UniProtKB/TrEMBL annotation, chain A:
It comes from the Bacteria. It comes from Aminipila butyrica. The lineage of its organism: Bacteria, Bacillati, Bacillota, Clostridia, Peptostreptococcales. Residues 46-80 form a coiled coil. PROSITE patterns: PROKAR_LIPOPROTEIN. Pfam families: DUF881 (PF05949). InterPro entries: DUF881. This is DUF881 domain-containing protein. Signal peptide: none annotated. Keywords: Coiled coil.
From TrEMBL, chain B:
It comes from the Bacteria. It is found in: Cell membrane. This is Small basic family protein. Coiled coil: none annotated. The chain crosses the membrane at residues 28-45, 57-76, 82-103. Belongs to the sbp family. It is a multi-pass membrane protein. Signal peptide: none annotated. Keywords: Cell membrane, Membrane, Transmembrane, Transmembrane helix. GO terms for cellular component: plasma membrane. InterPro entries: DUF1290. Its main location: membrane.
């Protein structure tokens, strides 16, 4: 009787031991306690992802509708010619705005940078206090990162082909010579752009630390002029796909 | 008896780590609750042995039904969105401590009884001397 008891207890303990070991291997100390906050965070993430998906689906739908309307327009029945032209005109307008060939207007920020006015330390390099081409480039880059839709420096529109480079005490932008102070205007989400620049790690803050004058102003109404000269493309040609002309 | 428990657990752990038994991670919580119930029955068995009231059938049936009930409670709680497994945690966890306390008291009592017996023997010997 006693022996049977021993074996029974032994067998059940063995089962528990196996269970414990498996549990340790499978859970590995994770997935045991998920705090409600974590669950909530995941819920929010999932919801935002779902919204993103619906937005993308809408975009797809719009594109398909556009395509369908184009196809309808291209069928030569003469009546839809006008609609086709309207569509084309709207597209041209959009691309002109994007490429800097149109004067645009909207809310945004104005950044002003200027050479520093503080006294130099003994033996300090004067370059520490001057605005360089790199500073302008970094600020343009930061603005673009924060969703700027149009940027201009001292009235010169920044486009895809813009160059900013140093030429002595001045800076050449798109081949035009500009001197300090530099006024950089950007249309977009002003609060976001300004916040990025004056952030403790932002570029504006580091300029101030060097002693360069730096200022950001939010503006409700900024007008950015079109590009002063049009690009003439001499080397670039559209890739002709086979079967299309 | 204690040896049987310890050796059984050791062999079980070795087997569990040695053999490659794996199950989906979703079930791990139910298994945990079942194990808690099982540990409670083992400590309960040890206590009843100390009290000379051990019964094999009660032990095995309690072991199985407690583990199953804990798992079912956890599962139902998951489905209802109510943390019912707290019930299992409080009951079995509390019982674990209770049983351990009783075990400790019994062990200490026995120890003192043994000491007294020894002292009694010594006293008798002294009288004879």
């Amino acid at each position: 009787m006693n022996k049977r008891r021993m074996w029974m207890v032994f067998a059940i303990c063995t089962v528990i031991g196996i269970g414990l070991a498996c549990q340790m291997k499978v859970s590995d100390g994770q997935r045991l306690y998920v705090s409600p906050k974590t669950v909530e965070d995941y819920k929010i993430t999932i919801n935002s992802e779902k919204e993103e998906v619906t937005k993308l689906q809408l975009m797809i739908q719009e594109a398909e509708e556009k395509l369908a309307s184009y196809e309808q327009d291209s069928q030569e029945d003469g009546q839809s010619d006008e609609a086709f032209q309207k569509n084309l005109a709207a597209d041209v307008e959009k691309y002109k705005m994007a490429s800097g060939l149109e004067t645009v207007r909207g809310p945004g920020v104005e950044v002003v940078i200027d050479d520093g006015t503080r006294e130099l330390f003994a033996g300090e390099d004067v370059n520490n206090l001057l605005v360089h081409d790199l500073d302008i480039l970094m600020i343009i880059n930061e603005l673009n990162r924060c969703g700027a839709e149009a940027v201009a420096v001292n009235g010169q529109r920044i486009t895809a082909n813009t160059s900013v480079y140093c030429s002595g005490y001045t800076v050449r932008i798109n081949g035009e010579v500009y001197a300090r102070p530099f006024r950089i205007k950007a249309i977009g989400d002003g609060k976001r752009m300004a916040a990025a620049l004056v952030d403790p790690d932002g570029y504006g803050t580091s300029l101030k630390n060097w002693g360069v004058q730096f200022e950001v102003r939010l503006k409700d109404d900024i007008t950015i002029d079109a590009l002063s000269k049009e690009y003439v493309y001499r080397y670039m040609n559209k890739l002709q796909k086979e079967g299309t002309n | 008896m204690i040896f049987a428990i310890v050796i059984g657990l050791a062999i079980g752990l070795a087997l569990g780590f040695g053999l490659d038994i794996s199950y989906p991670a979703e079930y791990s919580f139910y298994i945990t609750m079942g194990l808690l119930a099982a540990m409670d029955s083992i400590v309960g068995a040890a206590r009843s042995m100390m009290e000379q009231k051990y019964n094999n059938l009660i032990f095995t049936s309690g072991f199985i039904t407690n583990a199953l009930l804990a798992m079912v409670l956890t599962y139902v709680g998951d489905k209802l969105g109510v943390p019912l497994y707290f019930a299992a945690i409080f009951v079995f966890g509390g019982r674990l401590f209770n049983n351990l306390a009783v075990l400790r008291r019994l062990a200490i009592e026995r120890y003192f009884e043994g000491k007294q017996r020894k002292n009694g023997l010594k006293n008798k010997q002294n009288i004879e001397d």
